[in-house]
Amino acid sequence: DAKTTQPPSMDCAEGRAANLPCNHSTISGNEYVYWYRQIHSQGPQYIIHGLKNNETNEMASLIITEDRKSSTLILPHATLRDTAVYYCIAHAGGTSYGKLTFGQGTILTVHP
Amino acid sequence: GAVVSQHPSRVICKSGTSVKIECRSLDFQATTMFWYRQFPKQSLMLMATSNEGSKATYEQGVEKDKFLINHASLTLSTLTVTSAHPEDSSFYICSACTATNEKLFFGSGTQLSVL
Q1: Among the four residues B20, B51, B84, B98, which has the most C-beta atoms within 10 Å?
Q2: Who among A46, A103, A104 is closest to B104 (CB)?
Q3: Given a cut of 70, is residue A99 above it in pLDDT?
């Protein structure tokens, strides 16, 4: 997996958009960008993934720069329950899909 | 959506005893399951890859004789921590995916405390 760099922590006001950046300047052409989050004392939860196009689902949006060297996860209307550690992972998928390399992630704190 | 069930959620045991943790894929067949370990305030570290019907593949530094993994069916993998010691106290998390599914599903984790 390509190395990813994320800020260690971020704050966000409830109801506002949370924009979580991730740098993956050495990402390979066949590596997807995955985002997972982990709420305290729980297993990680899949959020979204993409290769080069922007993606949106019911949880979040993923914006990937044209050169694919960085991306941003957007939670459009953050709630208190979105407080978690967010992990950005660059991974090729396939049969080795589950061998994800988790970094330190970004601790997102959503406050009232 | 797909669900991975992990049991027990919390276990406290005496040093020297063995503990078994179960990981089940409830609504899909998981040909491959993964076991992670997470120490307090640290990130997840992959311990081993469990393939149905074959021996598990362990990551470097993980003792295969201490962490026994069995994946006897397409819906169940077990991790047994043998002769547990206080340094084995950690949060153990399993995950599962299918060959055609790009999403990896995680169990809710097991907090192991060895006294």
Answers
A1: B84
A2: A46
A3: yes
